[in-house]
Amino acid sequence: DTEVTQTPKHLVMGMTNKKSLKCEQHMGHRAMYWYKQKAKKPPELMFVYSYEKLSINESVPSRFSPECPNSSLLNLHLHALQPEDSALYLCASSQDRAGGYNEQFFGPGTRLTVL
Amino acid sequence: AQSVAQPEDQVNVAEGNPLTVKCTYSVSGNPYLFWYVQYPNRGLQFLLKYITGDNLVKGSYGFEAEFNKSQTSFHLKKPSALVSDSALYFCAVRDWSNTGKLIFGQGTTLQVKP
User: How far apart are CA B34 and CA B48, in angstroms?
Assistant: First the structure.
């Protein structure tokens, strides 16, 4: 299995809602990433997990809360988001820990709309 | 600071013609360089990478890239473009200072016309 899966594909939420994004990979990768991408712009790194521990937080607001329950699963918990948080949220994984030179494999993303 | 530049927002090519998407980089030390492609409403797909060794790197879907250290460039090429190659292309370099974070260029939209 050489795939990163993300659910849901689309999510619409109000500013007071709590929701979660889910990412899964079964390639045995030990580094996992969350990115935010606006239309026609490059992805912006949010968080990196290496061996299930948070290794990078790119000064992301606390309304985004990542969680890595096990080596195959990565969640992003959302609470009290703002309309400007509407974007495509991408999950990625790579074979070794985040300091290595292996390519990252991306999921198809969750299209988030905050009303 | 490490950076990647993609000087063209858009490249237009006729089907069957060769294509080039440009990328230049600025890093301290040896660069690890990557090309990704993104089709509409999809995630990024890895095309190829340069780590060390041969300057001509071959990747997926017939793409290749040439690493040029003197010109600090890593241009993406394909001998014969297909309409299905139309997509958004990102060049990236690994950031040595921050546990392998990728630094992306701004992206180049490739439009292949029949």
Answer: 6
